[in-house]
Amino acid sequence: MRTEGILIENSWATLQLVYFGFTGGSALGIIVGVITGRIAIFGKLFDPLVSVTYPIPKIALFPIFVIWFGIGFLSKAVVVFLAAFYPVYIHTFDGVRGVPELHIWSAQNFDASRLQILTEVVIPDSLPQILSGLRVGLALSFIVVFSAELIQSDLGLGQLALQARQFNNYELMFSAISMIALFGVIHDRLLLLTRRRLLYWQGDEH
Amino acid sequence: MSEVARINDWFSRLNDWAEQTSYPIGYVSIIGLLVVWQIGALLVSSSYGPPLIPRLEVVAMELYTMLIAEGTAYSHIAATLFRVFVGFTAALVVGIPVGLLMGSSKRVEFVLDPIISTFYPIPRIAFYPLLLTILGLGHAPKLVIIFLESLIPILLGSYYGVQGVSELHIWSGENFGASKLEIFRDIVFPASLPYIFSGVRMAMPIALIVTVVTELVSSSQGIGYIIIQAQGSFDYETVFAGVVLISLIGIFFDQALARLREHLLFWAGDVSIDM
């Protein structure tokens, strides 16, 4: 238990999962959200599916993924991916839907192509929404990663904390918990910083 | 070229049709998901052991056995619902008053705001092993962690709600000689209700997630326990049935809250709290 570097090894496993799952899930969420928000038929087709599956606790699917992919990296990555996808998708969809038609019409009047309308009108207009979706998704990713590691895992801070508890090694348990708290705070602050950078034109509302 | 133009034309006409139609074409994708499941079950077959994806009708039979034929699931469902209700109600009872107080009083805000905004980005589930150590293995640590996780969205919703009340409304109330209590009861509280409700709606799935997690980690009752127990004994139909069960509960809660909102807050537009 007291091997050197055990905290670093497990932290890295946890962070890898968050990065992989969150990046993948939110990228897919943004892409699908923009498509379904812009093209009516996809919106009509897929939005009911999403709103039905949204309230399903994604972590309940984790035992199924363990059956399929084993207790390694992949099963957890898929759960984090799903957990990050939903909030980002929903916020992006709402944001894209909320873009004023007037802005799109004026761009069309200036002969903007479809791609230009997308990159210069729709995405900047819905950026505040997308970013708050990302923030919710990031927070959820950390919750889900830690939970999945508590349930069944070979590596990771959650597994470390639980194992340390079983060995009555409370110093190690506290350090694992502090690490995950610290990572949560740091990543949230980084995202806020990015948001401030990207949305400087929005002015200070807070 | 003409071929591309024809397809484009056809697609945009289809798009216009989809925008106008009142047919519930959304069900297509939900049925599609079930079809994909069934096809997957028929295609994927493991060379030994139980099937990795149980077929739809097998899972349905399992659900039938659990709910009607033998009724073994009810005590577990009751255990899960009990935990969600107690933890969630405690979060409501504490979160709404404290949030309203934070919004109304500068002093309370000054003390609590730094604490809340520090705790907000920390995944509170991280404290679960600690709570297990302090409170043992029974109901107590589960209820505490459900309470902690659902508290903050509810609290922030009420807090932002009070902050968002228009000054103009309060001034007109004062002009009519309303007392502080009356202003709070008749102006501030109703005006912040939509925000409180958004917070509640955000907290509900979180409460359910945390409940399932605690049951998956360590428990002797509850739907999470059914799932993890069945997974350990390679009884994959029951795993799927348990997941379907918890999904139905999640969907039911979400729909119930949506209906409640339509009923109570029909006068308010949809507000989303930016957290």
Secondary-structure map:
The complex is a heterodimer of chains A (about 210) and B (about 280).
Chain A: H1 6-38, H2 40-53, H3 62-69, H4 73-97, H5 101-109, H6 114-151, H7 157-166, H8 170-198
Helix pairs in contact in A: 1-2, 1-4, 1-6, 3-4, 4-6, 6-7, 6-8, 7-8
Chain B: H1 2-20, H2 26-43, H3 56-69, H4 74-104, H5 106-119, H6 128-135, H7 139-163, H8 167-175, H9 180-217, H10 223-232, H11 236-264
Helix pairs in contact in B: 3-11, 4-5, 4-7, 4-9, 4-10, 6-7, 7-9, 8-9, 9-10, 9-11, 10-11
What's the short version?
With 206 residues, chain A is an all-alpha fold. Chain A is built from eight helices and no strands.
Features:
heterodimer, A: 206 residues, mainly alpha, MetI-like fold, 8 helices, 0% strand, elongated, B: 275 residues
Describe this structure in words.
The complex is a heterodimer of chains A (206) and B (275). By secondary structure, chain A is mostly helical. Chain A contains eight helices and no strands. Chain A is elongated and about 70 Å long. By secondary structure, chain B is an all-alpha fold. Helix content of chain B is 78%, strand content 0%. In chain B, α4 runs parallel beside α7 (139-163), α4 (74-104) packs across α10 (223-232) and α10 (223-232) packs antiparallel against α11 (236-264). Chain B starts with a helix and ends in an 11-residue tail after the last helix. Chains A and B meet through α2, α3, α6, α7 and α8 of A and α1, α2, α6, α9 and α10 of B.
